[in-house]
Amino acid sequence: MNKEIENVTIDKPGLSREEQSKFVEETTRKIKELRKFIKDLPEETPAQKAQKAARLDRIPEIRDAVKKVAKRLDYPIEKITISKRKETFTLNGRQFDYAGAAYLEGNRKGEIEIYPLGISIGTSAKEIEGVVAHEIQHQRWQKVSEVWAAENKAVMQDPEIKEQKWEMPGGRKVDGMKPDGHLRPPLDKKYPIYELFVDFSVTDLKEEDGVTEYSRDWWKAFEKGEATSTQTVHETFAEIAHLEQKFGVGVDKLVAVKPQWRKWYKRVQKLYEAIEKNENRERDLDEKFMQKMKKELPEMFK
Questions:
Q1: Which of 85, 103, 149, 205 has the CB geometry, 3.0–4.6 Å to 108, for a possible disulfide?
Q2: Which residues does residue 81 pair with via DSSP β-bridges, in sequence order?
Q3: Whole-angstrom Cα distance, residue 246 to residue 127?
């Protein structure tokens, strides 16, 4: 930590000179406490240093795994970095080391980091590839869910959905949305992505739980209110990708993946690939891209 920070003067709008002085004094006190805390931290033992070195020695192997999986999944390798940091998180009262992280928002959106210090020494090469596939799947599902959210919003704002009336047998008139949430023709063709996901149910997916011990831990956290459905679904899709890469088989051959998860995972993969076909698309989905998607999707999901 930089020592000059103790001598800095702070000009905070809205504070009197006396309040600013107290603010600087309190900040300085906290910095000193932090320095003492860092100084008092126990040094690494020789065994811990050796283990850390052994994990970092696997960086070339991890780099090979990144290249292999990024190529197979057609993910930009320049968006994947290997970091020597150690990151941790807590789930169900247990502390875990991050093996990797996917940035889903902010300035680093779309980027992935792999952490050698979070990968156990005995982890196989195939397992490391699974870690990379896991993080890439986070990015895939994020992109698909954003496309879905955009079309869902468009459906909710479309005046035709509520204002246009269809004449039914017996003279009864109805609006553009059926009681089950599906759209009536021709609106179902206008919003194909919405139609694909209208039956997506976290409740149904929860019944089939996760696909690995790790994803099941996330569902347990969800049940306790310690994780959101968004996080839990993310982790389960990512674990399916992990298993595919680890065992070298498609999702249909993974016994651990139950029918509902298998169906939605395959649908997510197809939709992501359709999105990626348009290399010049805008992130906010320009009209030309949307028209192309609407033509391609009906055939793709027959």
A1: 103
A2: 113
A3: 6
Helices 259-277 and 287-300, packing angle to 10 deg: 140
Whole-angstrom Cα distance, residue 254 to residue 266?
A: 12
112 Rama sector, left if φ>0, alpha if ψ -120 to 50, beta otherwise? beta
pLDDT in tens, 98-135: 999 999 999 999 999 999 999 998 999 999 999 999 99
Integer CA distances (angstroms), 159 to 163, 195, 286, in order: 6, 17, 21
The pair of structure tokens assigned to 176 is 């553009």
Nearest to 166 by CA among 145, 142, 185, 153: 185
Q: What is the pTM of this model?
A: 0.78
DSSP annotation string for 5-73: GGG-----TT--HHHHHHHHHHHHHHHHHHHHHHHHSPPPPHHHHHHHHHHHTTHHHHHHHHHHHHHHT
Q: In degrees to the nearest 10, what's the CA dihedral of 175, 179, 182, 186?
A: -30
Q: Reply yes or no: is the peptide bond before residue 186 cis, omega within 30 of 0.
A: yes
Per residue, what are the HEC states of 77-136?
A: HHHEEECCCCCEEEECCEEEECCEEECCCCCCCCCEEECHHHCCCCCCHHHHHHHHHHHH
CB 270 within 8 A of CB 293: no
**Inter-CA distances, 145 with 141, 193, 269, Å:** 6, 10, 12
Q: Phi first, then psi: give them for residue 113, nearest 5 degrees.
A: -120, 140
**Could you report how far apart the first and last alpha carbons of the chain are, in Å?**
60
At 44-73, the pLDDT tens digits run 788 888 899 999 999 999 999 999 999 999
